[in-house]
């Protein structure tokens, strides 16, 4: 019995050896044919030839450009976000002033315009500023001027050519940009920090901004015009302040001198900067005639100015991020800053 089992196991072991030897030979043949045991097919990558044409742009957020008092606070930081192209040479700079109906100033706005200008080689600074009802004119304009002086004072830090600074804004920001343009080269609204530097701008772009605060609804229905004359209209708070805290009671017409002082047309002179104005024909917030009032006044005083109407464009929105509009703005800045 024992010998029988030994013979049976011996035959089984011999058969197993032959199977293993066969597998080994098969493996050797596979190695010879493919170079590796069971290797997968090698897939070729595609080649993408790139010729650098765009400039790398970096964002620096929350830069404090001044510290100012505001109701309830002795010291409030006004901030800007910078888009800085990565270039060795000094670059022109543009201040972007957001809109907000005189009651807010979100510097996150205008992303596509700011990026477009930065990729063209401009250092772009988007700013916050004081707003109604805790502030009134001219405090917001003083903030805008302070941001310009800050850029000059820190020109080496941000790689800016301090002799080439422009400004652009929409709505209330367009109004403040126009104001910076008409008062360029003056010191009337220079207050606060970095007063050793000038707040002059080489050019200004006003997108659907107001000019005369007493006529914001000039192209609209009598009902809308009446609303703009009310004490609750934001332009009244902007100019007169809150009557509860020492401001003038009534609408925008309550203090004609203050309203005239808050009109950029009042300040047009020999030092006023060249200006581009643009307005949508479908604007239902600020009358298109507002930028035309300023345009006519600039031309009459001999200040270089261009004005475009954009058919169908509303107050902000999709029309204002289209390539045709961005190109007109970019070309204008190139003309005066490059």
Would you write up a description of this structure?
This protein is an alpha/beta fold. The protein has a domain of about 230 residues: Alpha/Beta hydrolase fold, catalytic domain (Rossmann fold, 3-Layer(aba) Sandwich). Helices cover about 35% and strands about 20% of the residues. The protein is built from ten helices and eight strands. Strands 1-2-4-3-5-6-7-8 form an eight-stranded mixed sheet, with helices on both faces. Helix 3 packs across helix 5. The protein is globular. It starts with a helix and ends with a helix.
**Count of strand segments:** 8
Q: What is the CATH topology of the domain at 57-212 and 264-337?
A: Rossmann fold
Category from helices, strands and their pairing: alpha/beta
Instruction: Give, in spatial order, the strands making up the sheet with the most strands.
Output: 1-2-4-3-5-6-7-8
The number of helices is 10
Spatial extent as radius of gyration: 33 Å
Order of helices and strands: HEEEHEHHEHEHHHEHEH
How far do the termini sit from each other?
A: 107 Å
Which CATH class of the domain at 57-212 and 264-337? Alpha Beta
Q: What ranges have pLDDT less than 50 throughout 5 or more consecutive residues? A: 1-6, 23-34
Helix content: 25-40%
Second rung of CATH, namely the architecture of the domain at 57-212 and 264-337: 3-Layer(aba) Sandwich
Mean pLDDT: 91
């Amino acid at each position: 019995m024992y010998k029988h089992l030994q013979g049976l196991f011996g035959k089984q072991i011999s058969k197993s050896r032959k199977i293993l030897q066969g597998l080994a030979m098969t493996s050797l043949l596979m190695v010879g044919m493919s170079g590796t045991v069971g290797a997968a097919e090698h897939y070729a990558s595609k080649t993408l030839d790139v010729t650098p044409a765009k400039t790398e742009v970096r964002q620096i957020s929350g830069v404090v450009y001044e510290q100012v008092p505001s109701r309830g606070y002795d010291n409030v930081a006004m901030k800007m976000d910078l888009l800085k192209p990565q270039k060795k040479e000094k670059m022109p700079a543009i201040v972007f002033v957001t809109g907000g109906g005189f009651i807010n100033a979100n510097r996150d706005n205008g992303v596509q315009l700011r990026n477009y200008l930065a990729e063209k080689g401009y250092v772009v600074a988007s700013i916050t500023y004081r707003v109604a009802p805790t502030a009134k004119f001219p405090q917001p304009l003083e903030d805008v001027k302070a941001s310009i002086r800050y850029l000059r004072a820190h020109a080496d830090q941000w790689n800016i050519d301090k002799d080439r600074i422009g400004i652009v804004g929409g709505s209330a920001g367009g109004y403040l940009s126009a104001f910076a343009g008409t008062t360029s080269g003056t010191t009337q609204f220079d207050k606060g920090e970095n007063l050793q530097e000038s707040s002059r701008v080489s050019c200004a772009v006003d997108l659907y901004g107001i000019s005369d605060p007493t006529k914001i609804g000039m192209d609209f229905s009598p009902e809308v015009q009446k609303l703009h004359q009310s004490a609750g209209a934001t332009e009244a708070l902007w100019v007169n302040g809150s009557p509860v805290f020492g401001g003038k009671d009534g609408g925008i017409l309550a203090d004609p001198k203050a309203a005239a002082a808050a009109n950029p047309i009042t300040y047009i002179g020999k030092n006023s900067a060249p200006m581009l104005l643009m307005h949508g024909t479908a604007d239902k917030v600020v009358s298109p005639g507002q930028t035309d009032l300023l345009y006519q006044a600039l031309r009459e005083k001999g200040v270089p100015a261009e004005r475009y109407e954009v058919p169908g464009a509303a107050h902000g929105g999709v029309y204002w991020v289209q390539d045709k509009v961005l190109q007109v703005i970019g070309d204008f800045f190139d003309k005066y800053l490059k």
